Amino acid sequence: MHPEIVRLLQEAEDRYLQTSEVEIFQRYAASLNRRLEIYEKLREKEEKIFQPVADAIEAAFPNEKPEVVSRSLKHWILILRYCATAMLANDPEFLKLRLQEWVKGLVAAQANEEIELKIYELLETELKSHLSEKQLPLLLPFLAKSKELIFTDE
Fold first, then answer.
1. CATH number, domain at 144?
2. pTM, entire model
């Protein structure tokens, strides 16, 4: 659940929510159905989303070892799952914590940044063909944040 909603509920334990607080909660609830639809679509179409990405990566890096390509694709499958969960909960901090825990270190340790960046680009393009114009703005900020967290030094 979005941290602001959790905070509102905690603050209102011994009182009713104020009108402005109810409005925040209503906006959150209204967007939850849209976020659930996106989450379910990603879950159902994961293979259809990633197969063209995998094919394009294999074509772009024909001399790369298959296990290296496979490992990088698995990273991005997990990253997209984390993005989907963060989007569902509307919680960017969830994504940040998950990615900083392991993904950033893995990408750096395996020195496949060129492949990983290409997968990101292809995945973003592929998502645009599977999600509607109304759905994309709910997910793409999380995907962009994942790129920022993984490929920038902090």
1. 1.10.490.20
2. 0.84
